[in-house]
Amino acid sequence: MLVPFMSLQRCCQRSALLIAARRQWSSSSVSPPPLHTRLLLFLTQRFYDVEMLLSWGSQLRRRGIQKKNAYYGYTQKLYGSDIAAAYYILSLKGGFRYVGQSEWFRANQRGKFNWDFLKHKDTPLEEVNMSYTVINYTGLGNLEGQKALRTLSLRGCPEVDDWFLARLHIFQDSLEELDISHCPRITTAGLAALRNLKGLRRLDVSSLPGISSPGLVVILLEEMLPQCQINATGYDHSLRQERGERTEEHMEGQR
Amino acid sequence: MSTWRRLHVKVRTAHGLLTSRWETQQRTWQYGHLALCQNLSTGRPLRNDFFKDLEAQLAAMRKKASDALPGSSWSPLEITPNLPPERADIVIVGGGVMGWSIAYWLKQKERVRGGVKVVVVEKDPKYSQASTVLSAGGIRQQFSLPENIHLSLASADFMRNINEHLGVLNEDPIDLQFNQSGYLFLASEEVAHIMEENYSTQRYAGAKVSLLSPTQVKEKFPWINTDGVVLASYGLENEGWFDPWTLLNAFKRKAISMGVIQCSGEVTDFKYTTNVMSTADGDDVDLRRIRSVKVQMPNSLEYQPVECAIVVNAAGAFSAKLTAMLGIGLGPKDSIAGIPLPVEPRKRYVYVVHCPDGPGLDSPFLIDYSGVYFRREGLGGNYIVGRSPEEAEEPDTSNLEVDHQFFEDRVWPSLASRVPVFEKLKVKSAWAGFYDYNTLDQNGIIGMHPLINNMYFATGFSGHGLQHSPAVGRSVAELILDGNFKTLDLSGLGFRRILAKEPMLERNIV
């Protein structure tokens, strides 16, 4: 009984020695990890701080857009709703044309514009071009009083979404041309809201990335707005997907 | 324990191994050196294996020993995962969209991270019977009570900015699939004056609604048969339908990311203390305060009492069962304690029909004065149809089976007479869901019961719970954390009207 026990004891001692030896060996061979590993390690240790910073960043961006789209109530009180709408459009680097005039007012690349538009008091706007601006749902409130607006171009606006389209009913009696092409946030569910614009003559829905099955949607839109000429380019109507399925079937058949 | 036993077995095998080797060694001693060398060369890897094992076992042993020291969370008893914690500040009973919305707003309003410990208890983690996901998913502003209109407007505003509210860093943005289509209510001659009154209330509250004459309806929607219609009201903005499952999961994901604890289980009992107080008239009333909530784990006898300060009753159709556990409704008939929570489950059927010739992209959420409603579902010619049954013919609520005869007898004739293209249709599927039906006035109950000190109610919405959930969640969180309503005054939806038996009825045209 005693002999095996002693041998066990010896084994344990040796194993302890081995462990100790391995530890020494391992500690001596550790070199500092590469820089990117250390950076990632640092970031994971600071997870909540990084999260906070990122959320502050997105909050700031949102607040900036909100500020640009604020309600121009002060201008409206001083100069009337038409001037307020014009000022809002120009400060967002858009362009517009008054009713009965051929001259367009536009802001240049750096956001500078001609203040001559102040001379036309109480003249409503007829055409508005807000392409590639950050106009959003709240900003649309500045244009609410424009009962003579006939053309509105919103090409490539990143903040134009379905809710924005639903709010376009404020121009339901006057709007004839609408361009919402290249707006990334518009989906099929929002296009249904265009039913309120019964006076629409021309609609551009080209290259909307949020639309699934664009062919069907365009047909349904044409059905919904029978007097409207719908322009929808930039979609791939080919049957590539189906062909892909067919090749898969074919492959399965081969197997 | 098992690790110990394994270690023991190891040692015993080692013992056997060693003795045998010792014997062989002895024997080789006798037989000569050549054999000894052979023996050693085979023995060494074996021995190394053993040491490696022993090393691992010793490490495990050391870990266990350090775990067993006071201050560590280890206990010799086995612990079921997702058991609720023993203590929490606020327990929300009911993990539907309302419960999760309240949880989210509580976390949103807390001053410091982890300021309130919120637990959401849901008995049906798969949501197979939850009213949230079995609803038609519509939101409208065409109510007659200003409270309801404001709730809808606030909820629509929330859904418009849903990614700012419920977006989680590093996760996909939420796509609610909100279909921007207004509700179209049709009124007959008897109820047209109500519709006009409602319209002015709605406009006053800020909802964008328009009234249409039958000719205008015919012009806008040529597929509607306007016989018997005198007036129609049509929502221009902030109305439509969305995916309830997405909204529920968005609330849940955000709330969990903010530190809300979710657990599946059913609340089967409360532990409460009772204080006997006397009123000004000299009557004695029992004032109860909940101390802990007993959460029964699903499919087991195990339960966990959760000590808590506040309980939120968001159990929807089954919230009356919870209050009955606290003795509400069991008291003498003419006292406050004798009035039960007037919420009961009611079964409603929803049918999906296919009609290729049906109205297209511009079809609104149509509600006829007969009570039949329908809306478009997707783009493939599918529609969701339903109707609220009469009070006398309420179906049995013990299961969620669908009565297809109801469609044949009640829904289809009215639907086809209103929209003639629906004469040709095919029922593709159907389901049933529960309404948390407020039998008194079909409106939500928000607030506290006078006899229970620390239970807040958000129940009895009778079918508008989903669409009002974002705004109601905020109001309940305000009520709990700030002590009163801050953004929307919902004191009209409190318990006072129920105890006084003064119903706040929606002046509906249906």
From TrEMBL, chain A:
SUPFAM superfamilies: RNI-like (SSF52047)
Pfam entry (one): LRR_6
Family from the record: Belongs to the ATP synthase subunit s family.
Quaternary context: Interacts with incompletely assembled mitochondrial NADH:ubiquinone oxidoreductase complex (complex I).
Job description of the protein: Required for the assembly of the mitochondrial NADH:ubiquinone oxidoreductase complex (complex I). Involved in the assembly of the distal region of complex I.
Protein name: Distal membrane-arm assembly complex protein 2
Organism field: Perca flavescens
TrEMBL record, chain B:
Domain (FAD dependent oxidoreductase) ranges: 89-479
GO biological process annotation, one example: mitochondrial respiratory chain complex I assembly
Methyltransferase recorded as keyword: no
Membrane topology summary: Single-pass membrane protein
Necessary cofactors: FAD
GO cellular component, one term: mitochondrial inner membrane
A GO molecular-function annotation: oxidoreductase activity
Entry-linked InterPro entries: FAD-dep_OxRdtase, FAD/NAD-bd_sf
Protein name from the UniProt record: FAD-dependent oxidoreductase domain-containing protein 1
Lineage: Eukaryota, Metazoa, Chordata, Craniata, Vertebrata
